[in-house]
Amino acid sequence: MNRPRLSLIVIAISIVVGGWQFGQGLYIYAKAELAQYLLASAWQQTQQNKQAIKPWPWADTWPVARLEVPAHNVNLIVLAGDSGRTLAFGPGHNFGSVTPGDVGNSIISAHRDTHFEFLKNLAAGDEIIIENQQGIKTYYTVSNLQVVDSRNAQIPVDYDNAALTLVTCYPFNTLTPGGPLRFVVVAVKTANTTPKHLV
Fold first, then answer.
1. 52: alpha, beta or left, given left = phi > 0 and alpha = psi -120 to 50?
2. Cis omega (within 30 of 0) on the bond before 195?
């Protein structure tokens, strides 16, 4: 085979592989966005019917809360469980932690390149609002942001107050998937019942 023809084959393969990778990336973002629309509908039905409604018939998860961060224009439906399959569609609540709003630490995880990309812009003092299935809102204030190594760090679930911990992979904006580092945001329940964003 001559060199020019081999070069053309290599270029063609590179274009096909590159296009496939690009398409996969778009698919992940599109799935994450579309899922939030379906989840919003299931969330409305959950609140109206006072029982968990699955977002699609074959789903193995359901909406458990709404997460809002007014300063960053974030409004997300939180799902039951934090398996990889669940996190493909939205933030997931860890079953081993308390229900959001209850006394103790509620842990919610999501992917750094979709639903929890906004965490990189959070700052201490930012307000986070969690609405439960009964429509009750709990207000939190971000108190701590840190990077931890998942191989030797544990997130406590026992708190005397209501706390909220948001977790995603770290660093942000990387091409390498996974890794042991996690970006952890801890927020504590606000004693003041007047939402900070309305003051």
1. beta
2. no
From CA 167, how far away is CA 178, in angstroms rounded?
A: 13
Could you report the per-residue pLDDT of 76-105, keeping only the tens digit for each?
Answer: 999 999 998 899 889 999 999 999 888 899
Burial grade of 50 (CB within 10 A; 0-12, 13-18, 19 or more): exposed
pTM: 0.79
85 in Cβ contact with 60 (< 8 Å): yes
Q: Which class for 141: exposed (0-12), middle (13-18), buried (19 or more C-beta within 10 A)? A: middle
Q: Is domain 3-198 in CATH 2.40.260.10, yes or no?
A: yes
Q: Where are the domains of the chain?
A: 3-198
Q: What is the pLDDT of residues 21-59, one digit of tens each?
A: 555 555 556 666 777 778 888 888 888 888 888 888 888
SS (H, E, C) the chain: CCHHHHHHHHHHHHHHHHHHHHHHHHHHHHHHHHHHHHHHHHHHHHHHHCCCCCCCCCCCCCEEEEEEEHHHCEEEEEEECCCHHHHCCCCEECCCCCCCCCCEEEEEECCCCCCCHHHHHCCCCCEEEEEECCCCEEEEEEEEEEEEECCCCCCCCCCCCEEEEEEEECCCCCCCCCCCEEEEEEEEECCCCCCHHHC
